Request: fold
Amino acid sequence: MKSAAAAVAGPAAPAAAKDARRALFANANFRWLLGGGALSMLGDQFTLIALPWLVLKLSNDTLELGLVLAIVGLPRALFILIGGAIVDRYSPKTVLMWTKLLNAGLIGLLALLVWSSTVQLWMVYALALAIGLVTAFSFPAGSSILPKTLPAEALQTANGALMGLRQLTALLGPLLAGLLIAAFGEQAARLENARGLGLAFAFDAATFALSAWTLSKVRLLASAKAPQEPQSVLAAVGEAIGTMWRDQELRTLCLYFAAIAFFVGGPIQVALPVLASTQVAGGAAALGLLLAGHGVGSLIGMLVAGMRPTWRLGTLGLTVLAIDGIAGLVFLPFGHITAVWQGLALLAPLGALAGFVQVAVFTWMQKRVPPAMLGRAMSVFMFIFMGLAPLAAAAAGAALRLMSPAALFTACGLALLLIVLLGLTVTPIRRINDRPAAEAGAALV
Reply:
């Protein structure tokens, strides 16, 4: 009997994947989306680095920094479901275009205020609130535009390329931003001498403007231009939630990922920094290396998912369960590491597997959801994770008052294994498939 992995990775698979990549990069829509996305994602990293430095220069207060970052995240979490409904009503391209222009204006204004040394903390709060609100609309628009502009067979390769690019900019962007800020007065005691912050914000604003121009070159598929019937925003959100809930496989997978995210997110956000500071030599530098290793692994996994879109362990559901089972096994010993190389040996492969499955599941959802409610469905999916992230962090922080980081990682690893076992035995996850029935049958021969 031939294994599923061997069947889908046979001699014809690499050639077919290569042809698919060649066809994708010949697609004008994808080239415009890739170029604009690269610019915008790189610019985002500049603001992510510059904003905390600005707040600390203005206040020298970590509480103020936490409040500013919370103000960015709060409206995004509260309004993302409404953002998804607006995307479906007016098309992802239209909404994404407006969000890019608005962000260019907001961050450009912040750059001018910093450059002129007139910025005050209340202005940062106001602009952070506005930026967070805009992202509530840009997130679902950005996650639902590919199915409206590319053929279905190109989605996984395109998602792999774009997600891999996002991961790459997350690795390189902070380094470039830090060098820019440092070169133009990052160490200055007074804000008027720290022109690098203004340049960082200006660069991000410019990338938003340029990516809006590249987006204007993108053309929606004919099937994506059907007019939607008028419907209230709340009714549209309720319709999407109801549709997703009635789809047993989609409902189960969302609930499953919510449980997995809770037991993965808490340790990574809270216990990993504690672990790095108490038992791994290197402290903050060690933490940075561990996170970078996981990030590089994720980048590799996303790129592989785009290059080999048919690689599966039988079905997509079995592949997801297997990878999450490996994550549980990795968590069991992870709390006992004492050196960076040990953590990297565990985190980098885990990041690669997670990146691979993230692309595959995201593509499956894009194909599964009715096109008319894709924006709302993506916003529901993102809302689950945005809502769970602070809860998981708070729960992990409370648990660390009662147990060591090693015990927490072990407990979460056991919880992950239990969730995978339940998913395998009592849910339809193992039957979730993202390949045509004939192809899936052949893979099991």
